[in-house]
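>> received
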Amino acid sequence: MGIRNKLFLTFLGTFVVLIVAASGFYFFAFEQSLRKYIDERQQAQVERLADHLGVLYAQRGSWDFLLSDPRVLGRLYWLAGDRNTDTEPGKRDRRDAPRHLTLLTADRRPLIGPPPTQQFSRLVPIRTDNDLVGWLAYPDQEAIRDKLDRRFQERQLNFAGWMALVGLALSLLVSWLLARHLVAPVTALSAHTRKLREGDYQTRLGSRRRDELGDLIRHVDSLGERLDQGQKARQRWFSDIAHELRTPLSVLQGELEAVVDGVRPLNHETIAALESEVRQLTHLVSDLHDLALADAGNLRYHFTALDMDTLCEDAVDAVRPAFGRRRVRLRTDLSPARVNGDPVRLRQLLDNLLQNSLKYTDEGGEVHLTLGRDGDDWRLTLNDSAPGVPDDALPKLFDHLYRVESSRNRQTGGAGLGLAIARRIVEAHGGTMEADHSPLGGLRITVRLPL
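>> returned
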C-alpha cells in the first residue's frame, strides 16, 4: 500500500471517528434537552390547569361539573397550553379528558382519569385561596410524549443522519486532497532522486514551502548541485591530468624521434634533457598518487612530537641557494614550537609552500616565513612579494591542477598540485590553511596547527 493510500485512510478514519463522536454527542445533548423541555412544558401546563380548576371549584363548590361532563377537563387542559397539531380545530371542544392526567380529591382518591400508578410520580395541588381541594397527577415525560414530540425527535434524528452523510462525503474529499497535497512533493522527490541516480544533476525542484518537506526539497536540490559540481570537477580533473601527462610525454616522444631520425645526436646533453623530462613526469605521477591517497584518506601518517621551528629551518636551508640564484630575499622569524605531527609530511608541506613562492615570486623580490603562537594554535605564515593573485583566484588555489596563469607555462609554474597536497596534509593534522593577499604585494599562506 502506497503512502498516499495510507494517508488517505488515516485522515478518513480520523474524520469518521470525529463525525461519529460529534453525532453521538449531538444525539445525547438533544435527548437531554428534549426531556427537559417536555418536563418543563408539562409542568407549566398542569400548573395552569390546576389554577383554572381552583377558580372553577371556588365558583361551583364541588367537582360535580367535571363528573357530569369529563370532557370539560380535556378542554381546560387544551386551554392551559396543549397544542397538539393532530387535533382538528373543529374537534377541540369534543376532546375527552387527557389519558395521562388524573384528578384526585384532597385525600388523593381518583375522580377522573386512569388510576394513579408508580409512574404517576408528579403531583400538582389544586387550591382555592388557601384550601387544598384536590390534586392533579401526571407521569414522567417518557409516558406523555405525544405524536408531535416524536415527530420532532424523528426530524432531528434525520437531520443528524444527513449531517453525518454530508460529513462523510466532505471527509472523503478533504482526506483525498490532503493526501494528494502531502504526497505530491514526496512523489516529486522520488522522481528527482531517480534522475540523480541516473546521472542527471541539472534538474532542480525548487520549493516555496516553509515546512519540513520544503527543507527536504531544498536539501535535495543542494545535493544535486554538489553532485553537479563534483561531476564537472571530475571531468576537469581527468582533462587536466591528461593534459599534464601529455606534455612531458610529447616532449619525450619528440626528443626520441629526433634521436632516431639523426636530427639530434645522442650525447650527454640529449640524455640529460630526456632525464629531466622523465624526472618531471615521475614527480607529476608521484604528486597525483599522493593527492589520490590524501583524498581517499589513505595517505599514511606517523605522528610524533617534533620541533616545528627546527623543521622550518631545515626546509629554508635546503631552498636558500635556489632563492639566492633568483635574487629573492628569504627572511624567517621562527619561535620555538612543539607540535605533534608527521615530520615527513610536514616537511613536504614546507617544501611545497617554499617552492610555490620560489616559482611565482619575481626576481629581486622577498619572501618572509614566520612561526608563532596565536591563541590555541601555532600559526605559520608565508608572505611573498609580487606578482599577486586576483581576488577570484584565491578560493581556487587549493583546487586540483589549478594555476593562476592560463598559459600553463612550465618555466614558472608546476602542475598545480603542490598547494592541494599541502592543504590535505594540514587537514590531516587537524589544522586549517588559508590564502590571502600579502602586505608584500604577493600571496600570503596561513597555516594553523593545534597546540
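>> Residues 82-95, 406-413 have pLDDT under 50 and may be disordered.
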